[in-house]
Structure formats: structure tokens, C-alpha cells
């Protein structure tokens, strides 16, 4: 792998940025530059290669759902978490309301759709939202090696102000007992996590952490970390790109998670961590150019999980 190679992949897919638009249902997200495009790759040998617009910060959005899930699994154990949230992929949009009522026990289908992630947020341990948020940030800080994990206040306020759909999901889950703590606090934590600022290289480092089975600088920090990471990777593979997960699994075959700010974090097992940014998103809420770049990286570096190595 080298810079030229990655630049070639980036340029080859640049025109796909015109096939998407920045998210506007969270008004502040609409201000992102739809032409922005960047890739960072981190390898277990310590190489970090960035090409394109990698220095621009953006918010994690749904990519935070993966970190949220791992902390909740470490806090409660997988049985407790999955007594409230399912393990199945969903053919519906990430913020579907109808699906929640029609599925068994009214459980959200998986932890990577909005309903599932809000339910998972309600399970993070801490005295209050601030402590819960700081615990997730401390974990992120260890993974990325970044001392200060910060929240983008403008996006956070915008999310809170316009998050009625997420509120409806949360209150419905309260009514069915999926959420048995304070709903507003679970929502507040969810909005804060979605609003965490990152760069492409932070995403690549999260990817590398997952790809290496949960190691941070060669060390496993919690005895249940490998299990929690295995769970996260499995759900990323089947549900990480919402109702585009099947297609991505077939074409790229890499556990990955997208967010509506246009980020994609990917973790081909034992290979590398990948961070992609391209704020123009397609109708499924995934970076239009980002999904194409992921496919190209997969074929270029032989990363499909089912490809014979
Ligand atoms: N904050 C966004 C929301 O709740 C996250 C969704 C996403 O990234 N797909 O709608």
C-alpha cells in the first residue's frame, strides 16, 4: 500500500460525490462541503497513510453507535444488552418508526439503527449523562490516542432541536419497557455521542482497534474486550450500512459503519483500520463516494472476508 495507490482510488471515485447530498434533516450537517473526500488507512505495523481532505473534522454520527455498543457490552454483558436489542439486520431506513412496533417484543432490530443505539445508550453506566458521556470519551481517547475528545456544540444543539423522530422512537421504547431509565437522559447521551468531532484518521484508528480484536498498543484492556469487539464486528458486517448492508457485504465484504455526516469506519479483520469521509450521502444515508471507495479498497487489497487469502 502506498500514497499513490490510495490517491488513485480516491480520484477514481471522486465523481460519485455528485451522486449524493449533505444530510439536511439535521440542519447544521447541511453546511459540510459535499466535495470533500478523504481516506486514512492505519496498519498494525504502525503505518498511517492519509490522502485527500483528511484534516477536516466532522461528527461521528452513527459511527459512535459501535463504541456505544462496546461500552454497554463491557458494562452489562452481552445477555443483558441483547435482551433489549436484537441482532438482525434491517431492510428499513435507520430511523424507521414503523419497524419498531411490528417486530417481536417491540425490540429494535439491532444496536446500529437509531432505536437500537438509543436503547443501548440507556444501558451505559454512570451517575448522570455527563459521567456516561465521559466514560465513552475516555474509551475513545484510549483507542485514538487523542487526549481531548470534544463535542461539536453546534451540531449537538441542532440534533437536540430537531431530534423529534429519535424522541418518538425513545418514548415508544419506554412504553414497551425496552428503556427502563430516564428517556430524556438516554436521548441526551445519544445526541452527544453522535456529535463527537473526529477526523478520518481517528476513524481509521477505531477501525484498527477493531481489526486487531480490541488491542490498544498491543494490549487487551478488559478481559471481555475480544468478545465485545467480535460482537461489534459481526453486527457491523450485517447491519453497519443500514439498508445498504447486504450490498456492501457482498461487494466490499468488510465490517464497516457509516454515519450521516459522510464518515465510514471500516475494520477488515487482522488487516488494517480504514477511515473515509465524503459528506455527500446517498438515499440510504451512506457516503455516496465512500461506499465506492470501500469496494475499491477491498478489491485492491484483497480485504473481502470471504476471499481466499
Ligand atoms: N444523529 C443521527 C440521527 O440520529 C445519526 C444517524 C446516522 O448517522 N445515520 O439521526
TrEMBL record:
Transmembrane parts of this sequence: none
Keywords, ordered alphabetically: Acetylation, Hydrolase
Enzyme class per UniProt: hydrolase
InterPro entries hit by this protein: Beta-lactam/transpept-like, Glutaminase
Record's catalysed reaction(s): L-glutamine + H2O = L-glutamate + NH4(+)
Binding site for substrate: 62, 114, 159, 166, 190, 242, 260
Enzyme Commission identifier(s): 3.5.1.2
Pfam families: Glutaminase (PF04960)
GO MF annotation: an example: glutaminase activity
GO biological process, one term: L-glutamine catabolic process
Family, per entry: Belongs to the glutaminase family.
Quaternary structure and interacting proteins, as annotated: Homotetramer.
Protein name (record): Glutaminase
Lineage: Bacteria, Bacillati, Bacillota, Bacilli, Bacillales
Gene this protein is translated from: glsA
Amino acid at each position: 500500500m502506498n500514497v499513490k495507490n490510495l490517491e488513485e482510488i480516491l480520484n477514481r471515485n471522486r465523481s460519485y460525490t455528485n451522486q449524493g447530498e449533505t444530510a439536511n434533516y439535521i440542519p447544521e450537517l447541511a453546511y459540510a462541503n459535499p466535495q470533500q473526500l478523504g481516506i486514512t488507512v492505519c496498519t498494525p505495523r504502525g503505518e498511517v497513510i492519509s490522502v485527500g481532505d483528511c484534516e477536516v473534522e466532522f461528527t461521528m454520527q452513527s459511527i459512535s453507535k459501535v463504541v456505544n455498543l462496546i461500552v454497554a457490552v463491557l458494562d452489562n454483558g452481552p445477555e443483558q444488552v441483547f435482551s433489549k436489542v436484537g441482532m438482525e439486520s434491517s431492510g428499513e431506513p435507520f430511523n424507521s418508526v414503523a419497524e419498531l412496533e411490528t417486530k417481536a417484543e417491540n425490540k429494535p432490530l439491532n444496536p446500529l439503527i437509531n432505536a437500537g443505539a438509543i436503547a443501548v445508550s440507556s444501558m451505559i453506566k454512570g451517575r448522570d449523562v455527563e459521567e456516561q458521556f465521559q466514560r465513552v470519551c475516555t474509551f475513545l481517547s484510549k483507542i485514538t490516542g487523542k487526549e481531548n475528545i470534544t463535542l461539536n456544540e453546534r451540531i449537538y444543539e441542532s440534533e437536540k432541536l430537531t431530534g423529534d423522530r429519535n424522541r418518538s422512537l425513545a418514548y415508544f421504547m419506554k412504553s414497551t419497557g425496552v428503556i427502563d431509565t430516564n428517556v430524556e437522559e438516554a436521548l441526551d447521551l445519544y445526541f452527544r455521542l453522535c456529535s463527537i468531532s473526529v477526523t478520518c484518521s481517528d476513524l481509521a484508528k477505531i477501525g484498527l482497534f477493531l481489526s486487531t480484536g480490541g488491542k490498544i498498543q498491543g494490549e487487551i484492556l478488559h478481559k471481555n474486550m475480544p468478545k465485545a469487539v467480535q460482537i461489534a464486528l459481526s453486527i457491523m458486517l450485517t447491519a453497519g450500512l443500514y439498508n445498504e448492508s447486504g450490498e456492501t457485504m457482498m461487494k466490499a465484504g468488510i465490517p464497516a459503519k457509516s454515519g450521516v455526516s459522510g464518515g465510514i469506519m471500516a475494520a477488515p479483520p487482522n488487516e488494517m483500520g480504514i477511515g473515509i469521509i465524503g459528506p455527500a450521502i446517498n438515499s440510504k444515508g451512506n457516503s455516496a463516494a465512500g461506499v465506492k471507495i470501500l469496494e475499491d479498497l477491498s478489491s485492491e487489497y484483497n480485504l473481502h472476508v470471504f476471499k481466499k487469502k
